[in-house]
Amino acid sequence: MSILTSTLLPSSLLIPRRTKPINSPNNKVVFHKNDHYLNRIVPQKKKASFCIQAQAQQVEPSIPSSPIIYPTVRPKFVLFGSSIIQYSYYEGWGATLAHLYARQVDIVLRGYGGWNSRTALRVLDKVFPKNAPQQPSLVIVYFGGNDATHPQQDGNGPHVPLEEYNENMRTIFIHLQSLSENTRILFLSTPPINEEQLYGDSIPLDPPKTNESHRIYSEEGLKVCRELNIKAIDLWSAIQEEREDWKDVSFIDGIHFTKEGSNVVSKKILKVLREADWEPSLHWEDMPIEFKDYYTPIGPGGEPIDESNTRFPPGVEWE
User: Fold this and answer.
1) Has UniProt tagged this entry with the keyword Hydrolase (predicted)?
2) Strands, E, within 208-313: which ranges?
3) Contact, 249 vs 243, CB < 8 A?
């Protein structure tokens, strides 16, 4: 089997093809030419009898009979919900989480615009199978905005009656709680909307969405969370309490968040993760950094530069 050799263990899961070896004081490792994940990396316990030349060269080293397989499965956070989840990577709070946890957690987006809690139940076992080899450490759940849409006379549309919404969310939470004893859940309640921005100058007499209906469904979701001991964020209140001009700065279209609106969401999420009494902690400053000690870049003066937990951009303070 042809393999490439190097003295450097890359800091990311994807192994780049190198044109020449890089000197490193760490143990030499061997990685397969066509394998891209570090769980395929086989460290050499002793000095290996193979040659490293200036240019990358296919060689045949002696591989240990019992290769050491490094565990590389990161913890997983799943964002599950409707468009507030799906669009969360557009200058949004989902992108902020992915940025802060870049070396610690895989943030998995499962957002489905237009869905309500009834639709979510149809795929719950597919998105979160109980026999999955790895269960999420955290699931952030949002459904409610589409459920809160007023019912149409023909029975179509995303509206879900309040009592059914309660039962649907209860079923979702209980299923997630059953995945593993270490799976944590955080619910985002239905946020407010800006009716003037949503409808413009022609607000209908019976608008399909109102800020009041969002309040009602927000409170219902929070009620279920209290009964099941689920941590939750009251977004309907949080957005409106953040600043007086919340209507003007929080929404792109009256419903979905701008960068400013998303900043409120990410701040509230990080606050919950910091203060939660979960063991182990899921806050980004407490979780271990993947391969932190495997490779440290060396500066021009020969000093090590630890970039594994660098705050970026400089000067920005995160919760």
Assistant:
1) yes
2) 231-233
3) yes
How far apart, in whole angstroms, are the C-alpha atoms of residue 99 and residue 95? 6
Rounded to 10 degrees, the C-alpha dihedral 222/223/225/229 comes to 130
Strands 231-233 and 184-188, bridge-based pairing? parallel
E strand segments, 183-307? 184-188, 231-233
In contact, 110 and 85? CB cutoff 8 Å: yes
Q: Of the segments 9-18, 55-64, 84-93, 198-207, which one has the largest average pLDDT value? A: 84-93
Let me know if residue 86 belongs to a domain. Answer: yes
The CATH code of the domain that includes 112 is 3.40.50.1110
49-65: string of b/e by CB count within 10 Å (b at 16+)? Answer: eeeeeeebeeeeeeeee
pLDDT tens digit string along 17-75?
333 333 444 433 333 333 333 333 334 343 333 333 333 334 343 344 444 444 568 99
**Within 13 Å, how many C-alpha atoms sit on residue 314's CB side?**
1
For residue 279, give every residue at least 6 positions away whose Cβ sits within 8 Å of its Cβ, in sequence order, or none: none
Whether the full predicted model's pTM is greater than 0.70, yes or no, is yes
Residue 104 lies in domain: 76-275
d(CA 132, CA 136): 10
Instruction: Indicate the number of domains in the chain.
Output: 1
Has residue 291 been placed in a domain?
Answer: no
Catalytic residue numbers read: 82, 253, 256
Assigned domain for 27 exists: no
Where in 167-246 does DSSP place strands (E)?
A: 184-188, 231-233
Q: Which helix (H) or strand (E) holds 31?
A: strand 29-32
- Asked if residue 192 belongs to a domain, the reply is yes
C-alpha distance across the termini of the chain, in Å = 49
Bridge partners of residue 81, in order along the sequence: 111, 142
